[in-house]
């Protein structure tokens, strides 16, 4: 255990004084490092117009001069972003708005993103084509430029945190651990914004709305590009580019200012987000990626319903996917499918009410006797309910039990929806655009998603929503304040179940078939209870947009990583561990949870010699 010497501040202050005028690497002084970072980023841009390999066998055709393609476009974007951040750090007029929180941390993330994407590409070329001999001079220029940019960016000065000195009386292992802690504290400080984000100046409402529209357009473009990546290397490069590029923009303060605008115009931002999502099918030439889009919306809708149970009320539900199955089976039984033993065909509006009502009833029946439990005991009971549902529909096949669900064969040949003469299974033409079957269901799920978002917002801001949060934070204190804990939790459980059933009614018609194997606790293909819970936690518990982002990532990434075969879940698990290690509060963090996870973070004590931002 590390002990504190008689005067620990003196060595720490001395060390800070020695290192305040240099960065992490210590190869060059600040003016040279900044100039090299700018020159390296500009050279990175130039290298994107050169051929990186002479062999056209590598996907994307990186053999052409003067015409960037595939991964070259990603590196070009990152190089331009790093160059702009670096120019902003020089105080060039008209570029200060790019770095409201300071430029140096953004430069480091941008340089790291360029380096990672570029060297991944060069490594993929060497592996796929059989060695470094397949690289053209443009590839060598790219490698040198991105490496120089990264080293120079790491040499930009930063405020070093005060740390405990290594006690010479400690064991060698304890000294090593203390050194690692000190080094990690320095790395975190190097990649932290040098000062708080400047408050956005007052702008005309029209300008603010225009900025929100641009942000939403960029988000639509990124999503469309990511979902439409045509080969494996391009998607992996996109993950690196999007992840580290997002970190660079966040470190610059632009993301914080955009959040300020969307919070100011919250209703308008939500409406704009739905309009941007509705434009997605019009960006596609066929129904291939609309298929992914509609499944992502189903997954995200169910995750948002689970967020009421887990994120707002704090009830750990490990069998939530069963409510999706209840809604799907209820809608399938009254859909007029030839394999349904009921032989009835309800109109869509009636089927969707049946599915949602059935899920609510099951939610109340399961919640009433179990919600007096807390913590792990409640989680075990809900896990058991999920498995009981799957086994029950497996056995109601007319042999082991009554003939209701056809057992393991499920209910097949579910007809397409027909709503007031609009057949969702047919191709339609809207404003000259051809809209296929999955695009039709995409628009329907978007409307259901809007209903779920409205319910989440209204309930979260209501009196009962505040009661949920109180129970989540401290149930004993909430009960002492007069909150009826059982009733409040039962409402959350039933509401979450109803929203899942709502999505299940559409899922049954999209997939044509419902079977017990679709509603497992865990499996490689979402939605299942484990993936739904991961979407809520990864995206951000208690937030509205967090589970939507988490669900989109958790559905898209496994779908695109299928080329990894048996290593798919391993790579996916490692990625989740890294994300939760470095951002435990989730991608879209609730302010309360963000403070909880970072309440022990130390504030830097020494002033830097040069801010450079």
UniProtKB/TrEMBL annotation:
It is a multi-pass membrane protein. Keywords: Cell membrane, Membrane, Transmembrane, Transmembrane helix. It is found in: Cell membrane. The keyword Transmembrane helix applies. The chain crosses the membrane at residues 32-54, 74-93, 105-127, 139-158, 206-228, 234-255, 267-283, 289-313, 320-340, 346-368, 375-393, 438-456, 490-510, 530-557. InterPro entries: ABC_transp_permease, LivM-like. The keyword Iron does not apply. PANTHER family: HIGH-AFFINITY BRANCHED-CHAIN AMINO ACID TRANSPORT PROTEIN BRAE (PTHR30482:SF10), HIGH-AFFINITY BRANCHED-CHAIN AMINO ACID TRANSPORT SYSTEM PERMEASE (PTHR30482). This is Branched-chain amino acid ABC transporter permease. It comes from Streptomyces roseolus.
């Amino acid at each position: 255990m590390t002990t504190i010497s008689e005067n620990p501040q003196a060595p720490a202050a001395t060390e800070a004084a020695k290192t305040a005028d240099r960065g992490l690497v210590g190869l060059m002084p600040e003016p040279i490092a900044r100039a090299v970072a700018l020159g390296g980023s500009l050279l990175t841009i130039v290298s994107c117009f050169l051929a990186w390999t002479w062999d056209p066998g590598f996907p994307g055709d990186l053999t052409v001069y003067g015409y960037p393609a595939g991964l070259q476009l990603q590196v070009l974007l990152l190089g331009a972003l790093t160059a702009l951040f670096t120019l902003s750090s020089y105080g060039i007029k008209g570029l200060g708005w790019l770095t409201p929180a300071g430029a140096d941390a953004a430069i480091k993330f941008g340089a790291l993103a360029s380096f990672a994407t570029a060297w991944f590409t060069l490594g993929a070329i060497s592996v796929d084509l059989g060695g470094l001999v397949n690289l053209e001079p443009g590839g060598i220029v790219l490698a040198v430029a991105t490496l120089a940019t990264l080293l120079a960016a790491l040499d930009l000065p930063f405020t070093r945190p005060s740390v405990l000195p290594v006690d010479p009386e400690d064991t060698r292992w304890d000294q090593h651990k203390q050194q690692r802690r000190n080094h990690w504290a320095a790395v975190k400080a190097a990649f932290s914004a040098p000062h708080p984000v400047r408050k956005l100046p007052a702008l005309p409402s029209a300008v603010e709305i225009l900025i929100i529209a641009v942000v939403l357009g960029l988000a639509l473009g990124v999503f469309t590009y990511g979902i439409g990546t045509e080969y494996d290397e391009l998607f992996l490069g996109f993950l690196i580019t999007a992840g580290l590029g997002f970190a660079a923009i966040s470190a610059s303060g632009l993301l914080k200012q955009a959040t300020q605008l969307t919070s100011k115009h919250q209703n308008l931002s939500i409406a704009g987000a739905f309009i941007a999502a509705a434009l997605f099918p019009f960006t596609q030439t066929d129904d291939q990626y609309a298929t992914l889009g509609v499944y992502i919306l189903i997954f995200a809708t169910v995750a948002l319903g689970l967020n009421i149970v887990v994120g707002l009320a704090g009830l750990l539900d490990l069998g939530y996917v069963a409510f999706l199955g209840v809604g799907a089976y209820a809608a399938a039984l009254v859909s007029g499918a030839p394999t349904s033993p009921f032989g009835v065909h309800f109109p869509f509006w009636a089927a969707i009410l049946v599915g949602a009502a059935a899920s609510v009833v099951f939610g109340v029946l399961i919640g009433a006797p179990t919600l007096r439990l807390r913590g792990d005991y409640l989680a075990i009971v809900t896990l058991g309910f999920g498995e009981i549902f799957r086994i029950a529909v497996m056995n109601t096949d007319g042999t082991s039990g009554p003939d209701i669900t056809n057992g393991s064969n499920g209910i097949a040949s579910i007809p397409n929806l027909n709503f007031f003469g609009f057949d969702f299974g047919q191709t339609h033409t809207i404003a000259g655009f051809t809209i296929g079957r999955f695009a039709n269901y995409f628009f329907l799920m978007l409307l259901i998603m809007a209903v779920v978002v409205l319910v989440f917002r209204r309930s979260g801001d209501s009196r009962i929503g505040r009661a949920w949060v109180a129970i989540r934070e401290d149930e004993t204190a909430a009960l002492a304040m007069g909150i009826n804990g059982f009733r409040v939790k039962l409402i959350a459980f039933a509401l979450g179940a109803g929203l899942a059933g709502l999505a299940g009614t559409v899922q049954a018609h999209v997939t044509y078939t419902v079977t017990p194997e679709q509603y497992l606790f865990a499996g490689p293909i979402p939605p299942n209870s484990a993936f739904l819970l991961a979407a809520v936690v990864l995206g951000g518990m208690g937030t509205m947009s967090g589970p939507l982002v988490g669900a989109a990532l958790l559905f898209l990434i496994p779908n695109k990583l299928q080329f990894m075969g048996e290593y798919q879940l391993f790579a996916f698990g490692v990625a989740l561990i890294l994300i939760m290690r470095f951002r435990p509060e989730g991608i879209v963090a609730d302010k309360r949870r963000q403070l909880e996870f970072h309440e022990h973070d130390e504030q830097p004590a020494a002033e830097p010699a040069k801010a450079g931002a």
